[in-house]
Amino acid sequence: MRRRDVLGLASAALAASLAPRSGAAQTAWPSSNVTIVVPFTPGGLTDILARAVGEKIAPSLGRSVIVDNRPGAGGGIGATAVSRAAPDGHTLLLGHIGILAVNSSLYANLQYNPAAFTYVAPLAIVPNLIAVHPSVPANTIKELIDYAKANPGKLNFSSAGTGGAAHIAMAAFNVASGTVMTHVPYRGTPQSVGDLIAGQVQLTFTSGVSLLPHVRTGKLRALGVSTQKRLTIAPEIPAIAETLPGFDLSAWYGIVGPGGLPEPVVQRLHGLIRNAMAQPDIAKRLNTEGAFHWDVSPDEFRKYAEAETRRWKTVVDAAKIRIE
User: Fold this and answer.
1) What Å distances lie between residue 128 and 161, 205, 206, 228, 247, CA to CA?
2) % of the chain beyond a pLDDT of 90
3) What is the pTM of this model?
4) Which of 208, 211, 181 has its CA nearest to residue 290?
């Protein structure tokens, strides 16, 4: 072989070795276990969804799916960790409305950029309920508003943490109703709801998944649901919009990853997660609590999160909430 041909082959080989390759092309994905970071304590809906999805997709991946709970800073600790992870599809985040749409307006020094995530797959839209301890002298949303206005600051509402979905939901209600209620943050939904049942706080505004079982046993009283219409599974609970026209606030959840995830990985994950959420046991659990699978493309998921970010900035500014 002539020297010029040898040099040409060597140059081509070198160029090929230096050329950028997608993560999917370098090695078959996944090449190790997949971790879903849940930025809250175990037991809440975020944790439940992560474990349900992980269990369903693991057989197709041929790898274990590990749920890693990293609570703190309104979900910011876990979200920041994922934002800094390698964009190879092995580290994902189960985010929700607070992490992906509210925190950018709420926190002065947010350590991650929600817009920089790769949006992979939406999971569910979950209606919120306002529920009170039976000792609260209110059986309707109007009675709650009247009592709160007559006793400003006397009612304490719980949440899973400062800046979390329940905190912001109640802040939005306070703005819409002109009431003042005192926020009591906890380290997770189970603790928040547990102290409400015990009467340590008077009300909360969080997912029906967390509250309906206790409402049905009489431990709590549901006053209103956040969707525009009543839930088919609990038609006796009025929509808050019946008292505050236009009020509409539901939590939403989805899977995201670090920015720059390879498109083949995104598409495969999206398909697997979409199929998992349609499985009868998961669908039944969601339907039982009035929630439903949110089924849109990764691009539509991203655009929805961007629109929600703009919407919630208005709410956060009106409520004058800022966390340093």
Assistant:
1) 16, 6, 5, 11, 12
2) 65
3) 0.78
4) 208
Q: What is the CA radius of gyration of the chain?
A: 23
The predicted model gives 7-31 an average pLDDT of 50
The answer to whether residues 182 and 278 belong to one domain is: no
Token pair belonging to 140: 């309707």
219 and 273 in a common domain: no
Of 201, 219, 242, the residue at which a domain comes to its end is 242
Q: Which amino acid is at 138?
A: A
Same domain, 81 and 110: yes
Residues 218 and 117 in one domain: no
Domain for residue 2, yes or no? no
87 shares its domain with 136: no
- Give tens-digit pLDDT for 142-182: 999 999 999 999 999 999 887 777 888 898 899 999 999 99
At 272-314, the pLDDT tens digits run: 999 999 999 998 888 877 788 999 999 999 999 999 999 889 8
Q: The tokens of 31 are what? A: 């090449």
How many Å apart are CA 81 and CA 188, to the nearest integer?
Answer: 19
Q: Determine the Cα–Cα distance for residues 127 and 232; give it in Å rounded to an integer.
A: 12
